[in-house]
Design a protein that fits this description.
By secondary structure, the protein is an alpha/beta fold. The chain is about 30% helix and about 25% strand. The chain contains 13 helices and 26 strands. It has a five-stranded mixed beta sheet with strand order 4-5-3-17-16, with helices on one face. A four-stranded mixed beta sheet has the order 2-18-20-19. β19 and β20 form a beta hairpin.
């Protein structure tokens, strides 16, 4: 089977769609449910390669997980029933845990394993083995964790001998939801209060979900404080149902409470269809049930600043998260913008597709403060600069970002995704406005977050 696709210019994009469930929430829900004491139900779980890596990891740690299919045809969703064993109920894995391509899996799991009294080892694919792990290993060692990893504790594979941890005050050098979440989870196993300070706010699904489950987490601006559990169960844990019409208060017990959750659609997946509808003439798309958590939707602010037509409809609450239907359409006349490090954490996954939008905006769009993107699934700054230049765009590359000249007539070319799902999808959208044929290599990576992306794109394209 070919790992490339050839795409042509589109006349318009039109339709009503639902994109896959939120990847970040799917990861966290399955991990946290495993740490709860009792049965949890996860509706609309993302059955893509990355969350499946997390599911397989929790099974290796002794968690029983039932998988069910709900619905028919294109509306089939995955439901998981997880029988959590409590914070200290995990068991030593028989083999090395393979995290695949998932940075979320390995970094969050390292915080859990650091506090559990057994040996474990973590690895991943070739891409994940090149991503920096010192950013979690260093603070975990400050908490007393016993961890070693390849190349002087920089890269996978990683070995963890879990033990009782101590609370620390940690100032994060770079905003990262993965690092923050790792330390929050480790904080649950630590004596005292762990304090974490972010340079900018990053996505807060971990804090929202754990607080609803009974964790003692305080948030004051960019400071998060986590009170460690004592490891002894005080009475029977109360079941928490997270639904659209209730926002339960956390009950502070010595175990996390099980929960029911429906995962909303992923904004980062919706972003590609938002951009396509803005760029392709005579287009209009309605995307249903999308999570609009304010720590995730910096792209909406960017689009409004670019004079793009985007509207949020039917705003409501789903499982403790704000959700809306997103309506967007092409009106032309996009304007260049300047994007800096203050907003970057809220659009870190949308950088590639924003670069494509920038090629069609009047003026020069400058994106800075994005140095973190050089150590994602690929060097996203270099990959976007290289591919857009091949398609005729004028791009200047910086250490921490790009500047892109707008009003460019893109032309078809052969571009490489470097095995990065978001790069592959971004160039697929660019192909819809380019003359001639665009060939994107490395498209199998899209299955990491968005199985069925190309089928959905074809269905909407006229």
């Amino acid at each position: 089977m070919s790992d490339s696709i050839a795409l042509q210019k589109a006349k318009r994009i039109k339709g009503e769609i639902t994109v896959p469930p939120d990847k970040s929430m799917s990861h966290r829900a399955i991990m946290f449910a495993s740490l709860a004491k009792g049965k949890s139900t996860l509706k609309n779980f993302l059955m893509a390669e990355d969350p499946i890596s997390t599911m397989n990891a929790m099974r290796m740690l002794g968690i029983e997980i039932e998988q069910r299919a709900k619905g028919k045809g294109q509306k089939v969703t995955s439901e998981l029933v997880i029988y959590g064993k409590g914070l200290y109920g995990l068991k030593e894995p028989f083999d090395v845990i393979d995290c695949g391509n998932s940075g979320t899996t390995v970094r969050l799991l390292s915080g859990i394993l650091a506090g559990n009294p057994f040996f474990s080892a973590l690895t991943g694919d070739d891409s994940l083995k090149q991503r920096p792990m010192a950013r979690v290993i260093s603070p975990l060692k400050e908490m007393g964790a016993e961890i070693s990893a390849r190349d002087n504790n920089k890269y996978l594979p990683m070995a963890v001998m879990g033990k009782r941890l101590r609370a620390i005050n940690y100032i994060m050098p770079v905003a990262s939801a993965q690092v923050k979440s790792c330390l929050i989870l480790a904080g649950l196993y630590a004596d005292g209060v762990t304090e974490i300070t972010e340079p900018q706010r990053s996505r807060d699904h971990t804090e929202r979900m754990l607080r609803a489950m009974g964790a003692d987490i305080e948030i004051e601006g960019r400071v998060i404080r986590v009170q460690g559990f004592k490891g002894s169960l005080l009475g029977s844990p109360r079941r928490v149902r997270l639904s659209a019409d209730e926002s339960p208060e956390a009950t502070r017990v010595q175990e996390l409470n099980p929960f029911d959750i429906t995962v909303p659609a992923d904004f980062s997946s919706a972003a590609f269809f938002i951009a396509a509808s803005l760029l392709v003439p005579n287009s209009e798309v309605l995307i249903k049930d999308v999570c609009i958590n304010p720590t995730r939707t910096g792209m909406i602010e960017v689009i409004k600043n670019m004079s793009g037509d985007i509207a949020l409809e039917n705003i409501r609450n789903m499982s403790g998260e704000p959700v809306a239907d997103i309506c967007c359409k092409s009106v032309g006349g996009l304007k260049a913008v300047k994007i800096n490090e203050d907003i970057m954490p809220s659009l870190i996954d949308e950088f590639p597709i924003i670069c494509v939008l920038a090629t069609q905006a009047k003026g020069i769009t400058e994106i800075r403060g994005a140095g973190e993107l050089r150590v994602k699934e690929s060097d996203r700054i270099r990959a976007m600069a290289e591919g857009l230049r091949k398609m005729g765009a004028e791009v200047e590359e910086y250490k921490d970002g790009l500047s892109i000249k707008g009003n460019t007539k893109l032309k078809g070319a052969s571009v490489d995704s470097y095995g990065d799902h978001r790069i592959a999808m971004a160039f697929s959208v660019a192909a819809l406005i380019a003359s001639r044929t665009t060939t994107i290599k490395g498209i199998s990576s899209v299955n990491i977050s968005f199985p069925g992306f190309f089928e959905l794109l074809k269905r909407l394209t006229k």
